[in-house]
Amino acid sequence: IVDQLSLPDPVRHVHGFRRTNIAIEHRELPRRERLDALWDIVRDPKMRPAIVYAPTRREAEQAAEELSSYVACAAYHAGMDAAKRTEVQTAFQKDRLDIIVATIAFGMGIDKPNVRTVVHLALPSSLEGYYQEIGRAGRDGKASRAVLLSSYADMKTQEYFLNRNYPDIRELRSLLRLIPPEGRPRQDFQNGEKEASLDRLLMIGALSQEHNGLILRKEDRSDWEKVYTEQRSHRQKQINEVLRFVENSARCRMLQLLDHFGDKDAQGAACGLCDVCVPSLRSAARKERPLDALELASAQKLWEYLQIEKDPVAVGRLYRDCGELLGVERRAFEQLLEAFAQAGDIQIEHASFQKGDERIEFRKVEALRSKPSVAWDDLRVAGAKTASRKTTQKSKAKTPKRQGAVALDQGLLEKLKVWRKGEAQKRKIPAYCILSDRSLEEIAEQVPRSREQLLTISGIGPVKGEQFGAKILELVGTR
């Protein structure tokens, strides 16, 4: 606006981003546990109506199918025909649906005042999108909730999409050389890798496409490399901003969002609602465990390293010298960093440097204290146990059966597999989406006799317990 109106020295006002009735919460959970967590969140009628954002169409349909066993729920995504989308959206707006599970195709122009909960089943692609999506909760001014479920694997997914949507600039240069002055038909580039590069060059104006599909070079866009580099850096910055928001468990979530948008109210009072302001919110949902011997050694070495290196150290270097050498998995090392950051012992910052045509983004760590605030024996990390790098599938296979372990009931295991296959075919989903092999083997080993015992099996939470518990216990009883 300032540029278009040629305003010489305008006063800018950035205000109004604060929402005083939304409790924002982040939970670290592997994907396999998120549907159970989702049901825990929305099973209370007070938490509905709810909008659930899934990262893919398939996951939206899967979540909607599971939830629809208990509440009025439907999926919504761009792969549905327009009439079906309109039908689902109207049903939700008129309170005929309790929950809608959608991709980001849903929500623009929606003004449903009584949405009580918004759940994200994966990391959002940007804080702008995330803020807009959680903003659909509590428009009536009543207490509402926004819960973000993610894990380290989501970061890798974001990196994959970044590299897919923004190929290496050398690939773009190589493709440009394949376009002669007279042009070339688009059909010559009908494969995944080249087509992605072609689309990116068309978007930034280095190429143009005629009505007949002929691709032409635009010689007047000699600045395309600069434009492309800036676009890729901007997308990387958006991902980093989301990661910073998730990782920063030391500052009010709402204040973080206000600060991102430049709202001066970011210097005001904390919201008093989020998982940072109300630690009991976080601890109630947070699974924690003590460190194993390798992780403890890694934590101690990490701390000694940071005391010697007074300047901030790149996370990659820290992992190489304090984790990988000891055989600790990268995710377990990240959990250590998160635990120290949450305790206020270290500070994790995002930084970048230019390498040729590419801007490399990374994180760096700095110690804030001379010794940890928590005793080594009391240190806890979030999430389930991560296997050490030294434990391969081959070595697991050679590991002798633990002493006193009960042999599997092979007859029951076969019955369970036949039942699972039938359920998967009926629902038209892969068998592992019903229950994993590990879950079936645990059932055949532990032979649970009650719903309570069944819920101790890995992979069986409240949702799957309600959905499949009676049948599984029936199979156990007839083994």
Beta-strand percentage?
A: 5-15%
Name the strands of the widest sheet in spatial order.
1-6-5-2-4-3
Shape: globular
Helix vs. strand class? alpha/beta
Mean pLDDT: 84
What would you say this structure looks like, in words?
By secondary structure, the protein is of the alpha/beta class. The protein is built from 18 helices and 14 strands. The strands form 4 sheets. A 6-stranded parallel β-sheet has the order 1-6-5-2-4-3, sandwiched between helices. Strands 7-9-8 form a 3-stranded antiparallel β-sheet. β8 and β9 form a beta hairpin. The N and C termini lie far apart (73 Å). About 4% of the residues have low confidence.
Per-chain topology:
Layout: E1 22-28, H1 34-42, E2 50-53, H2 57-67, E3 73-76, H3 82-93, E4 99-102, E5 117-120, H4 127-134, E6 144-150, H5 152-165, H6 169-176, E7 184-185, H7 192-203, E8 207-209, E9 214-217, H8 224-247, H9 253-261, H10 279-285, E10 288-290, H11 293-308, E11 313-314, H12 315-322, H13 330-342, E12 346-355, E13 358-367, E14 380-382, H14 393-398, H15 410-427, H16 437-446, H17 451-454, H18 462-477
Parallel strand pairs: 1-6, 2-4, 2-5, 3-4, 5-6
Antiparallel strand pairs: 7-9, 8-9, 10-14, 11-13, 12-13
Give a brief rundown of this model.
With 479 residues, this protein is α/β, with parallel strands linked by helices. It contains 18 helices and 14 strands.
List keywords for this structure.
alpha/beta, 14% strand, globular, 6-stranded parallel beta sheet, 14 strands
